[in-house]
Amino acid sequence: MTNKLVKACVMGWPAKHSLSPFIHHHWITRYDLRGAYDIREIAPEDLRDSVRKLVDEGYAGFNVTIPHKQAIMDLCDEIDEAAQKIGAVNTVRISAGGKLYGMNTDSFGFAENLRCAGVSENVKGAPVLVLGAGGAARGIVHALLGLGAGTVKTANRTMEKAQGIARTFPVMPVAWERREEEAEGAALLVNTTALGMDGQEPLLFDLRFLPKEAVVCDIVYRPLVTPLLKQAQDKGLKTVTGIGMLLHQARPAFREWFGILPDVDEELEREIIKRAGGSL
Ligand code: ATR
Fold this sequence. Notes:
Elements: E1 6-12, H1 20-30, E2 35-41, H2 47-56, E3 61-64, E4 78-79, H3 81-86, E5 91-94, E6 100-103, H4 106-116, E7 128-131, H5 135-146, E8 152-156, H6 159-168, E9 172-175, H7 179-182, E10 188-191, E11 215-218, H8 227-234, E12 238-240, H9 243-258, H10 266-275
Parallel strand pairs: 1-2, 1-3, 4-6, 7-8, 7-10, 8-9, 10-11, 11-12
Antiparallel strand pairs: 3-5, 5-6
Helix pairs in contact: 1-9, 4-5, 4-9
């Protein structure tokens, strides 16, 4: 490895509360690299110019978050197949020649979170219910199918969006109003909506139809234990919090820029949970 400073950043609007700088700086230090990762608050109309600037400044790449995950696709020279299917890019590598390669690491992050929680085998050939049909849900559906899930149902308040996922992926859209009954027999229930997040409305979901060996996963990590996960814990169901997805999605991005696929170590997990306002 040369001693050149490798620079990356996250672009979003807003972005100042992003936990990504902490994650990447942890790995830069741990692997003894010369690197920097900063936050850029970029309004949608400034995205194109901001990307040009990063290329001119010799950046190795960047993450994009809300609301740029779709708009960035028009600015990429190449987009990998998974990100195209998901319809969103969250990570970009800038080549030496200034070309932009877009990918989506959220799907990897979700699958790795399940694997590290020891439950990825549970979904093999098994029914799964996904709540929500936004960008996050599309990445998660991609991950679930990659893990060999059986029937994947998607329940969304706006039915057309659930049907939109079904045009790309082999999933079964079900009515939002019937979400509780549709969980019957599911090996895994995943909340991909923002419901239950601090400051948002709660997710109303009675878990009585879920089998007792089912796993409940929430991608919301503020609070760490959402009311949905609390309800699941009270029923004795296994739960997976959203913090792991945040941590694991950062790993392939780091590899794109720094050439090392980093681990999520205990210290990193503990610190991120603390910064996200939770406790272990
Ligand atoms: P993300 O990229 O995080 O998935 P998104 O694309 O804005 O964000 O999607 C948000 C998801 O949360 C959608 O599935 C949305 O449902 P709609 O498609 O009907 O908008 C869901 N959502 C947001 N607020 C909701 C609410 N009050 N009740 C039910 N679902 C809600």
